[in-house]
Amino acid sequence: MLDSLALAVSVPLIGALLVTAVPGRVQGLGLLAALATLATVGLVTAEVWQQGSLRSDLGGWGAPLGISLAADGLSAALLAMAALVALAVSVYASGYFSRGETETHFWPLWLLLWAALNGLLLAADLFNLYVTLELLGLTAAALGALTGTRAAVEASLRYLLVGLLGSLAYLLGVALLYTAYGTLDMALLGAAVRPEPIAGSALVLMTAGLALKAALFPMHFWLPPAHANAPAPVSAALSALVVKAAFYLMLRLWLDVFAPLVTPWAAGLMGLLGALAVFWGSWRALRAERLKLMAAYSTVAQIGYLCLFLPVLTALPAGDAREDLLVALLLMALTHGFAKAGLFLAAGLVQRSAGHDRIDDLGGTAQHMPATTFSIGLAGIALIGLPPSGSFVGKWILMRSVIESGQWWWIPVILVGTLLAAAYVFRVLSRAFNLEPTPRRFVTQARTEVPALLLALTSAAVLGLAARPLWRLLGFEGGL
Amino acid sequence: MNLDQLLPAVIVLSSFLPGVFIFLLKEESHLLRGVLNMTGAIVKVLLVGVMIWGVFHGHVYETRLTLAPGLDLVLHADALAVLFATLSSVLWLVTTIYAIGYLEHSPNRSRFFGFFSLCVSATVGVALAGNLLTFVVFYEVLTLATYPLVAHRGTPDATRGGKIYLAYTMGGGALLLVGAVWLQALSGPSDFVHGGFLSGLHPDVWGQLVAIFFFLLAGLGVKAALVPLHGWLPQSMVAPAPVSALLHAVAVVKAGAFGIVRVVYDVYGVGFADALGLLTPLGILATITILYGSGMALTQDGLKKRLAYSTVSQVSYIALGASILGPIATIGGVVHLVHQGIMKITLFFCAGNYAETLGVHKVSQMDGVGRRMPWTTLAFSVGALGMIGIPPIAGFVSKWYLAMGAVEADAYWVLLILALSSLLNAGYFLPILYRAWFRPPPKRWPEEHIPAGRFETMGALLWPPLITAAFCLVAGLFAAAPFSPLEWATLIARREYGP
Amino acid sequence: MMTSLLYGGAGVILFALGLWAFLVYEPLLRKLIALNIMGSGVFHLLIAIAERGALAPDPVPHAMVLTGIVVAVSATALALAMGRRLEDDDDAR
Amino acid sequence: MRRAGTLVIGALVGLLALWLLWVLRDVLVPTPRLAELALQELPNTGVSNPVTGVLLAYRAYDTLLELAVLLAALLGIWSLGAASPGFQPAGTVLRGMVKLVVPLLILTGGYLLWVGGHAPGGAFQAGALLGAAGVVLRLAGDARAGLPPVPVQRRLAVAGAATFVLVGLATMAFGTGFLSYPPAWAKWLILTIETAATLAIGVTLAAAYVGGQPVPRSGEDGPL
């Protein structure tokens, strides 16, 4: 009996243990573990594709006593995105870190983070989610400090503390839920939860904790320094995956567990915070002096974008329109994941090549690395939401739903967000055109440039043109 | 999938794929790059030729890719699409030859020609777009592909021009997107059809339809350089001459004007648009733009700037044609889409030749240039006279049909506008011709890059304007021949107004 | 019932105290202690709900607390190590 | 200003506490809960201590991940640089006490590990005592807190999670599913896991206390 769900968590975990125990072969073993993890995730996705959803009772106990793992289209899609991004990050890291200390420290933590991510996306138990959240937070903070600079350690420490605060708020919520309903399984809770004060308190506490981890405005303050000072492959993973994981969990709680409690006002508040995040994050990204800081602020804005879906989603009745919107939300999250990872990886190369990443002085570097500049451009297209990126399709469906649900006031938010994103992306890209001599060739360092380029390309072209399988994966009409 | 379903996609890809390969080429592979460029251009023209033949014989060419439920990417070849696709692919072939000559010895050619190819792919995509979603997609891709060309030179001026270009086009794109999405929310997913698909909607939403029209118009008006959205066009004159030619005659401005035509005829339907009272504001906007552009052109000393303002003015003839209810005016507007293109590209090629050969950038430096470069100046004269509307050059045909259409629709004020505009056209073109032919040449040219040899300049620079000038004459002289732009425009008008 | 409320209430109050201290005080050590107090508050609540009424104690919250303690220890250790690293940097200047 | 901020935060936090107290006031009734089910299934777990049953049978997966959390903390600490040199060697009296206390701690740890199957105790308590032994040694002047060389430390630190996950995979391979112990083997599998976990926890805690990869003594293993 092959339990693909358990494998998706244990394979990266075993990889982490292996590279910890055998530090001499860290790179080879690490890449091998990355490939193996991708394979297990492929298995999960394939099974979800065929069967719709998966559930595995670990230890054979089953809910409510034991812990279960579960996968549906939403988690499978994010799992697959995480695996592809993580593989690209792994290949990139194998070329980015010079052999030595940093590499020895990077791989075990990185594989642990991946295991935590898969664990989080597959968990069906609220307390188990707490453990995966903590594992994710600890590994993320430790990885963020890997550059060893004072700024990085300081930012990561803050990240760690904020993450702990978020986890504790979440845990208190879990304790309240167990008090009231006597179970930790999400499906059972979803059936049991009633609109009453204790469930409402749990929702508020857990949402607040997760919003802190997802860096939702105004709780985003820790993100930019932490993401901007981490080594490039880590920044990519933090911005593309870790933050998304917290948002995913929040979405799961709102849609699956607490659905009876979610009022239009609560969803509207999330949308409002999202709108503020779009404005503030984009504005700061536009004013950022450093490329990686710009990318980090852009993440704040993108999380805001995702929150804009919530009020519209709650306003729509169950049916095709709501399903389309849910897929659009997923598509947006996936696109941003690929795009942000590609952007950070490319930014890392620029930083390494130029010795800095001040946007105003990037001219020559951009000119010498066409492939990397292209990656930034393609990722930028996806961040702005221009066609044919996945976020364009997502934005189109979002705007259509906004109009159909009569909440037209989100339209200006979306437009302003788009234009500000265009402004900060092209502020960087315009540095690529200057009087420097001709570049030597398109790709100069395949091992690092190609992963970034592929990620960016996926976000800018592939996802938008080939989004239809997502409907099928989520089990909705309108798929293939 | 049979071939008819693939052809539109293949036509778009025929320049896209060479473009991608060109990016990957080493900078030194000039020959291979040239071969790729020319192959793509020639294949595209041939394929479009096949399509013309097919459309004429009633084939339906349609590529459809479903992005999401209700979101179809549709490439569909109707008569209007084929008209624009032919224009852009033929002119692209000519421009490619010109650009290869023009950019010899300059840096970053892989990047330039890569985006150059993407640009024309996007334009053909705009031409063949079968619904608003597809139109928006290629319209935005066009912005993305042209920005690097505008900023290509990398000078502070070019960077600034690029920035302004982006600011306008991105803003316009956002408004267009709102309009398109809003429209879809009202009407559901709909493809372009002759006569539009909105007239069946409930009168309650007519108010919304009016608002949507202005969103769409604002988005399209930016690229079509309608006043007051034209500010980017003169600024982007910093780009190399082939790019200017492309922007003004083939791609960007044309895409905007083409979009207006599409929205008026195939989304709203000209009759329904008239019923909603949308045509009058469009006509007023076009009129203002025509007069303003011509007026500004009068005062410019920079040759390319003068041409740029002339474009602002001339492109609005197309919008003007669309704003008059009646088949003859429609013919005039649509045919001007082609005629303006071939005339304006001739002028830009010539301007590039003057700059590249003699370093002449300003009108005031053009004294006697006709004696040094008679062939180029001949081509320039054909284009300029055509713009004024002198028979038998193409521009005359457009203006004639516009005027007739105005009479048919009892819109006599249009005649006045046409007369005034032609006077202004003459006012800024004739002095150039006078200087070029009748003033004595200076002792030294500002910067003589290419000495006079067997030809007055390089062959790759000389032939393109001569060819396009010939087009201008042929399109005017043989306007009544089958497959002429005029015949094609007549076909379109007949389908729009129906039996 | 009353005892449970007493213990559980104490947990809530510990949590609130910790939260307040975390938000108000700057130094790392105080923040860390505050977090641990918050954690203890949650554990307190869990222990309290494990023993409601006269029934046998519920082992599930107990196990959750044990797991939670190990997680808290790990996180505290990492945070302390980072803090020490920063102080070493200060000393080196 | 600052004082005002403190007060505002205090007021808000106080309100939160009051709200939660009000919410909790009438839900602290005996039901619903998992205890009955857990006690009822206990004979099938292979242990008779209900808490150990939850930790290593019902919710074994949590415990596995928790060992990973512990490992992550240690890896993070190691990545931050070398450890500080440590303390002065202890004086005679302290050394004598250490000689007494450390074996006692190890012995007690072993006992707690064994007893965990049927009474309060288990891997965490035992591991904590082992870690404490390391702390005592380090305080008494042993820079490496009595730990073996770094390569061995690495292997010991992963031993708990590795045994755990390998058992899980083995049960999956034998067809019972991930971490589903066959009843006949359950007791011994749990004991194996707990033993490995105890060692790993002890080593990890002690190594975390050292606070970085120890400076190698000359002639010994280098920093990896």
Describe this structure in words.
The complex is a heterotetramer of chains A (480), B (499), C (93) and D (224). Chain A is mostly helical. Chain A folds into 3 domains: 1-121; 125-262; 278-480. Chain A has 19 helices and 2 strands. Chain A has helices at residues 4-21, 26-51, 73-96, 101-122, 126-144, 150-181, 186-192, 197-214, 223-229, 232-257, 264-287, 291-315, 320-354, 363-368, 370-384, 390-404, 410-429, 446-465, 468-473, and strands at 54-57, 68-71. The two termini of chain A are 30 Å apart. The mean pLDDT of chain A is 93. Chain B has 499 residues and is mostly helical. Chain B has a domain at 338-499. Chain B contains 20 helices and 2 strands. Chain B has helices at 3-24, 30-56, 79-102, 109-128, 132-150, 156-187, 206-223, 232-235, 241-250, 252-268, 270-275, 279-299, 303-323, 327-358, 369-372, 374-388, 394-408, 413-438, 459-477, 485-497, and strands spanning 62-68, 71-76. Chain B starts with a helix and ends with a helix. The model of chain B has no long low-confidence stretch (mean pLDDT 91). Chain C is mainly α. Chain C is built from 3 helices and no strands. The longest helix of chain C is centred in the C-terminal third of the chain and has 34 residues, at 59-92. Chain D contains 8 helices and no strands. In chain D, helix 3 (50-58) packs across helix 4, helix 6 (123-139) runs parallel beside helix 8 (183-210) and helix 7 packs antiparallel against helix 8. Helices cover 68% and strands 0% of the residues of chain D. Chain D is mainly alpha-helical. Chain D has one domain (49-210). Chains in contact: A-B, A-C, A-D, C-D. The interface between A and B is large, with 45 and 48 residues. Chain D: Residues 93-206 form the Na+/H+ antiporter MnhB subunit-related protein domain. Chain D: InterPro entries: CPA3_antiporter_subunitB, MnhB. Chain D: It is a multi-pass membrane protein. Chain D: This is Na+/H+ antiporter MnhB subunit-related protein. Chain D: Keywords: Cell membrane, Membrane, Transmembrane, Transmembrane helix. Chain B: It is found in: Cell membrane; Membrane.
Please give the domain count of chain C: 1
Strand content of chain C: under 5%
Uncertain runs of chain B are none
The gyration radius over C-alpha positions of chain C equals: 17 Å
- Helical amount of chain C: over 70%
What is the strand content of chain B? under 5%
Q: Which radius of gyration of chain B do the C-alpha atoms yield?
A: 21 Å
Using the alpha-carbon principal axes, give the shape of chain B. globular
| CATH-defined fold name of chain C | Helix Hairpins
N to C succession of SSEs of chain B: HHEEHHHHHHHHHHHHHHHHHH
Number of helical segments with 4 or more residues of chain C: 3
CATH class division of chain C:
Mainly Alpha
- In whole angstroms, the N-to-C terminal distance of chain C is 58 Å
The main β sheet of chain C shows up as: none
Q: Fraction of residues of chain B in helices?
A: over 70%
Global shape of chain C: elongated
**Strand segment count of chain B:** 2
Arithmetic mean pLDDT of chain B:
91
Family (chain C): Belongs to the CPA3 antiporters (TC 2.A.63) subunit C family.
Main location (chain C): membrane
Subcellular location (chain C): Cell membrane
Keywords (chain C): Cell membrane, Membrane, Transmembrane, Transmembrane helix, Ubiquinone
